[in-house]
Amino acid sequence: MQREDWQIINNDLGAIGASGEKHMNSIMGLSQADCKGCYKCIRGCPVKSLSCRDEQVKVMDGECIYCGRCLLICPQNAKYIRSDVQKVKDAIAAGEKVYASLDRSCLAAFPHANMGQMIAALRKIGFVHAELATLGAAQVTHEYDRLALDWKAPNFITTACPSVYLLVQRHYPELVSQLAPVVSFFSAHARIMKQIYGSRARVVSFGSCISAEYDAQDAENGKSIFASLTFADLVEWFHEAGVQPEKLESIPVSGAKKGYFSRPGGIIHNLSTETRHQWECVALDGMNRCTEVLDSLKKGDISGYLLELSACAGGCLGGPILRMLNVPFLVAKNAVVTGMNHTMEGPPSLTEGVEAGVKRTFRPLAPHRRQVSEEEIRTVLSQMGKTTKAQELNCGSCGYDTCREKALAVIRGKADVRMCMPYMRELAETMSATVVENIPTGVLILDEKLRIEHINPAAISLLRIKTEVKGKSIGSVLPNNDFYEAFSTGKNVVHHK
Ligand code: SF4
Ligand code: SF4
Ligand code: SF4
Asked: Which of 36, 41, 188, 378 is buried most, with the most CB atoms less than 10 Å from its CB?
């Protein structure tokens, strides 16, 4: 496919978003040629951040949380993720000092390797050095401990998942004050690495999610990450370079025996006993559970909880990239456990124990949504042929759970009235009925026993019919031999007199 066939999705909010959010380069794209307009991605999107106008689906950068669900469920593989592999290769080729920050879940994509072999493989393709992001995670958890002791908001939200930052900022802006203002593990690790290896060090993170790329671009993180690549990028890069990590000699790894943070409960497990006693600590994974608990927080139904949220069920091992690579969850988990068991703990790296500032701020980033009146909704519903409650089928085939949600999406410029299948079918039926009723040609519609189901005005006039013929045999108005022949043989009798 030619590059021009791919449409880079632009930020629908323009260079500066309605909420003041700065424009970021888009992360996901869509091949218009491949999209068949089935709306499956809209149905699957947890925050309905896809728009469809004139049969063109677009990811709305100002609303998307980069959970990757639409990529996984598109039956046409019409969506793609932007990759910074070339940028990293260019930096290496230019002689820049490029470092890698790895989460141990990378072993799920390389099930026969251990972490020491992964690091050796990264050196082989040009990285100066690679480290476990655990060193950053430990510091983030330490900051959570510090903040949790004197936290004033009713609940304390922690996460290793940039999709959760975006979910809160863009879709639950009133809860931003309950989100602990701490950078991601990768950002923390990148800050530490730059502190030790120099401000010109280029730190590249590797992960199983798409939102990490957003996190890397987020100015609030101090732009410490040069590029965020996925495990799929790494699989391809090693393949191209003919590097097989499992065949290389393993290197002892600093932090190999430290905690595993990017699994559900990983943060809570590594918090101090004091913090865990002070709060009711609960880890929730999967988008449904996250939105359910955030809805409860929004209503003020719960307080006193320290929550650890992961957008993907199973945490990073259930991330979209590993699912795209078809790594089943338990296989992924076993690969990580086995790989880490075979990894030798190395001497402390230069970055071990180094303190870096890991604070950040979160701002509400919800796009401005004006109030919509009941009258506006009713107007759009009637444009979709829904003038009574009974006509609101709420069938979901447009991608929205209810007809009202769909009407709201139309008003907000995200959807088109024509996306309603039952309405379009009704419209098509009405249009064909209008044509049949008004053409000058006689039309009779028969059932399987050749009884008249419908006769149009032209046929009534041509055949000079004076009485009701509906339900009667065709033989009552026309010689029926040709009809029986056509019906029993399936042959065309159009030229018979
Ligand atoms: S899932 Fe979305 S992107 Fe994929 S073909 Fe259907 S409408 Fe197009
Ligand atoms: S990545 Fe997630 S939030 Fe963004 S459009 Fe796709 S399904 Fe929706
Ligand atoms: S009836 Fe139409 S508008 Fe309502 S949910 Fe179904 S497809 Fe959507």
From this structure: 188
d(CA 312, CA 294): 15
Whether the CB of 72 sits within 6 Å of ligand 1: no
pLDDT in single tens digits along all 497 residues of the chain: 333 233 333 333 222 233 333 334 478 888 888 888 889 999 999 999 999 887 788 899 889 999 999 999 999 988 888 899 999 999 999 999 999 999 999 999 999 999 999 999 999 999 999 999 988 888 999 999 999 999 999 999 999 999 999 999 999 999 999 999 999 999 999 999 999 999 999 999 999 999 998 888 887 777 799 999 999 999 999 999 999 999 999 998 887 777 777 788 999 999 999 999 999 999 999 999 999 999 999 999 999 999 999 999 999 999 999 999 999 999 999 999 998 888 887 777 777 776 778 899 999 998 888 889 999 999 999 999 899 999 999 999 889 999 999 999 999 989 988 888 888 887 788 877 888 888 888 888 888 888 888 888 888 888 888 888 888 888 888 887 788 888 888 888 777 65
Residue nearest to atom 2 of ligand 1 (CA): 41
Instruction: Give the fold, CATH level 3, of 374-424.
Output: 3-methyladenine DNA Glycosylase II; Chain A, domain 3 (1.10.15)
Which ligand 3 atom is at minimum distance from the Cα of 423? 2
404 lines ligand 1 (CB under 6 A): no
Give the closest ligand to the alpha carbon of residue 9: 2
Q: How far is the CA of 365 from the centre of ligand 3 (A)?
A: 29
Q: Residue ranges per domain, the chain?
A: 3-81, 85-341, 374-424, 439-489
To test the pocket of ligand 2, the residue of 50, 80, 230, 321 to mutate (highest count of ligand atoms within 8 Å of its CB) is 50
Q: Pocket of ligand 3, candidates 421, 425, 427: which has the most ligand atoms within 8 Å of its Cβ, to mutate?
A: 421
Tell how far the Cα of 40 is from the centroid of ligand 2, in angstroms: 12
Instruction: Measure the CA–CA gap between 218 and 27, rounded to whole angstroms.
Output: 12
- Torsion angle of C-alpha atoms 444, 447, 453, 458, degrees rounded to 10: 0
Asked whether the domain spanning 374-424 has the same topology as the one spanning 3-81, the reply is no
Provide the CATH topology of domain 3-81: Alpha-Beta Plaits (3.30.70)
**Minimum CA distance residue for ligand 3 atom 8:** 398
